[in-house]
Specification:
There is one protein chain. 27% of the residues lie in helices and 25% in strands. By secondary structure, it is an alpha/beta fold. The protein has three domains: 62 residues, OB fold (Dihydrolipoamide Acetyltransferase, E2P); 147 residues, 3-Layer(aba) Sandwich (Rossmann fold), CATH 3.40.50; 57 residues, Ribonucleotide Reductase Protein R1, domain 1 (Orthogonal Bundle). Strand 12 and strand 13 form a beta hairpin. It is globular and about 70 Å long. The termini are far apart.
Length: 287
C-alpha cells in the first residue's frame, strides 16, 4: 500500500515519516542508490507499507527547495537569529548566512535577539540591515510583544532558525511554542555558544507548522557559490543603484560603477561592501 507523508527526522539510515498523524520508521528503497538520490528532512515522499508492517520510501515528491547546510527541504522562511551580545554579532558571518539563504531561494528575515543587553546597539544594527533592504525584528526573551510579532511570522509554515551557537535559537523556539528544547550557555573563555542542537529535525508545534532548529554555525565557507558573478547577483541592493558602464562590472576597480558611486554617497552601507570585497577575494582565490 502506497502512502504519502513527510520526513520529520533521519537518524542512522532510518527516516521518520509522518502520514495522517502516524509516524512511520522507514528505510529508503534501494532505488535511491541507483538514482543517486538521498531523502532529506522536510521531503514529501511516497512510501510503501509492507505486509509485515515495515515502511520503505519509494519516491520523493518534487521539492520546493533543498538546503545542504542545514540539510532540509521545502523551506518557506528562514529566520536568521543574531544576538547583540553574548555572543557578540559578526556582520561577516551574518552576510554569509544571508548568501546561503538567498542561494536557496529564500529571503531571510533577521531577528536581533537579546536586545535587553544593548538596546541602542540592537536598534543600530537593525537600522543598518533595514537600509540594506532586509526585514528586521528586535526581540528579547522578556519582551512579550516582540515575541508575539515573531509568532505571526511562523504560522502554517516550515521555518528554519539559523544562526551561530549561543544566540538563543533553541530558547527562542521554546518561548514561541510549547516545545522545550535543550539550551546551552555561552563560554566565558571563548565568548562562543555551545552546541545544543545535534541533528536536523522538523519540530511540529501546530498543525502544518514546523520549525527546524539547526546546529549553530561557527564559520561558513562560500563553496556553494560557483563564481564571483553569482556572489554579485545575491547582493540584491546593488540592483537599485542603476546600471554600471560595463555589463560585467564586479564593482571593484571598474570606472563609472554605479555601486561604488552609491557607496561614495552613502546609499550603500560600508560594512556590506567590505564584506562583499572579502567574499569576492575568497571566491577568486579558490580557483
Amino acid at each position: 500500500m502506497i502512502e504519502k507523508g513527510r520526513i520529520l527526522k533521519g537518524i542512522g539510515g532510518f527516516y521518520y515519516v509522518k502520514s495522517k498523524d502516524i509516524i512511520y520508521e522507514s528505510r529508503a528503497s534501494s532505488l535511491f542508490r541507483i538514482r543517486n538520490l538521498t531523502p532529506t528532512v522536510g521531503d514529501y515522499v511516497e512510501f510503501e507499507i509492507t505486509d509485515d508492517n515495515k515502511a520503505y520510501i519509494k519516491d520523493i515528491i518534487d521539492r520546493k527547495n533543498l538546503f545542504l547546510r542545514p540539510p532540509v527541504s521545502n523551506v518557506d522562511e528562514v529566520l536568521l537569529i543574531v544576538s547583540i551580545k553574548e555572543p557578540n554579532f559578526n556582520t561577516q558571518l551574518i552576510d554569509r548566512m544571508i548568501l546561503l539563504s538567498r542561494y536557496n531561494g529564500v529571503e531571510p528575515k533577521l531577528i536581533i535577539n537579546k536586545s535587553d543587553l544593548d538596546s541602542s546597539g540592537a536598534s543600530l544594527l537593525a537600522k543598518n540591515y533595514e537600509e540594506a533592504g532586509f526585514e528586521v525584528h528586535i526581540t528579547s526573551f522578556d519582551d512579550k510583544e516582540s515575541l508575539e510579532e515573531i509568532k505571526n511570522l511562523i504560522s502554517k509554515k516550515t521555518i528554519v532558525f539559523m544562526g551561530t551557537s549561543g544566540v538563543g535559537k533553541s530558547t527562542l523556539i521554546s518561548h514561541l511554542t510549547d516545545l522545550k528544547l535543550e539550551t546551552g550557555q555561552v563560554s566565558k573563555k571563548t565568548s562562543r555558544g555551545k552546541h545544543t542542537t545535534r541533528h536536523v529535525e522538523l519540530l511540529e508545534y501546530n498543525k502544518d507548522s514546523y520549525i527546524v532548529d539547526t546546529p549553530g554555525f561557527s564559520s561558513l565557507a562560500l563553496d556553494f557559490l560557483s563564481d564571483i558573478y553569482e556572489l554579485e547577483r545575491l547582493y540584491f541592493e546593488f540592483d537599485q543603484f542603476g546600471m554600471c558602464k560595463f555589463s560585467n562590472c564586479i564593482h571593484i576597480n571598474e570606472p563609472q560603477c554605479a555601486v561604488k558611486t552609491a557607496l561614495g554617497n552613502g546609499e550603500l552601507k560600508e560594512f556590506r561592501y567590505q564584506n562583499y570585497l572579502y567574499f569576492n577575494e575568497e571566491i577568486s582565490n579558490r580557483r
